[in-house]
Amino acid sequence: MKTFGLKEIIMLLMIWSAFAGCSATGSAVNTNGSFAGYDALRADIDPLIGDLMLNCKELDRIAKDVRSVAEGYFYGPDDQLNYIQKSQIHIGKAKQTACHQWDVLAMIDYINPDQRQVYYTYRVRNLKAALFENMYDLMSLNTYLPYIENENAVVDIQSAAEIIRENNNIFEKITRLLEPLSNPSSPAQKI
């Protein structure tokens, strides 16, 4: 009986993976290697991903503006500095959430077609978690806003809150698009 060395095993794995990657499995895969309806999904989801990217950049600009306002209060009343800085932290968190979602949603084309259902499942779960995080950030901004006296900071924070609400709508729309394509959740997860 012949034993295989490391080189032979690696060569066999490379050959096997080459053939496994080229084969089309099932009727859900079309000739270009994507799921049936993938082009329709991309047509629906691409504008939402683009809006998410623009919102991410706008939240970044607003967070920088609020930070600049906060720097003017370093030697002023501590409570104003505190409220403005905390608001800036929540705007930064919402920006980070939006940028992360944009980053992972923009790479759909790079996911192996055979693994897209798993990818969609994780995206749906992560989008629901992002929605919850954004709701917390929005609630925090609404808590600090009445106590902030600087008019520029108030306008920026209100703009950020509107963008966060828009991001929540985008997350909900993308979740509705991906849920039918994802693995069904277990009964315990539906509760």
Give the biggest sheet: none
Low-confidence segments, ≥5 residues, pLDDT <50?
18-34
CATH fold assignment of the domain at 59-184: Methane Monooxygenase Hydroxylase, Chain G, domain 1
Task: State the helical fraction.
Answer: over 70%
Terminus-to-terminus distance? 56 Å
Taking all residues together, what is the mean pLDDT? 82
Instruction: Quickly name the level 1 CATH class of the domain at 59-184.
Output: Mainly Alpha
Strand-and-helix sequence, N→C? HHHHHH
What is the rounded Rg? Answer: 23 Å
Number of helical runs?
A: 6
Shape: elongated
Portion in strands: under 5%
Query: Helix/strand-derived class?
Result: mainly alpha
CATH architecture call of the domain at 59-184: Up-down Bundle
Per DSSP E runs of 2 or more residues, the count of β-strands stands at 0
